[in-house]
Design goal:
Elements lengths: L3 E3 L2 E8 L10 E9 L2 E10 L11 H6 L7 E6 L4 H13 L16
């Protein structure tokens, strides 16, 4: 295991997404692809049980956007509401680079 430090948080991993390795913890997950000499975060997710990412509906999309289809997942254990606040901050900071991130649409009410 080689941790990934992002915004002052040490994420554990990498776990391979479709191998059932992701721990069943409440927290934040970085969905990562290898990128040459480094790694590229393609999405950030939160869940009460991160092990469910192994069968997430977006898994095919993540594979499509990952080098050789291998999805690395790094996890950080954290409970809501702090978890959601930290994840939102991380997403907003990197929104232009998260190629597989789902974001809420802004709807005008006028």
């Amino acid at each position: 295991m080689k941790p990934m430090r992002i915004d002052g948080y040490d994420f554990k991993g990498p776990y391979i997404a479709d191998k059932g390795e992701i721990p069943a913890i409440n927290g934040i997950a970085l969905i990562v692809s290898e990128a040459g000499e480094g790694a590229k975060i393609i999405a950030i997710h939160t869940a009460d049980d991160l092990s469910t990412l192994s069968s997430h509906p977006d898994l095919p999309k993540w594979k499509e956007n990952c080098y050789h289809g291998i999805i690395d997942v790094y996890v950080y254990e954290m409970a809501p509401p702090k978890r959601d606040e930290v994840a939102r901050m991380m997403i907003n900071k990197r929104i232009n680079y998260l190629t597989c991130q789902k974001v809420e649409a802004i709807v005008d009410d006028w």
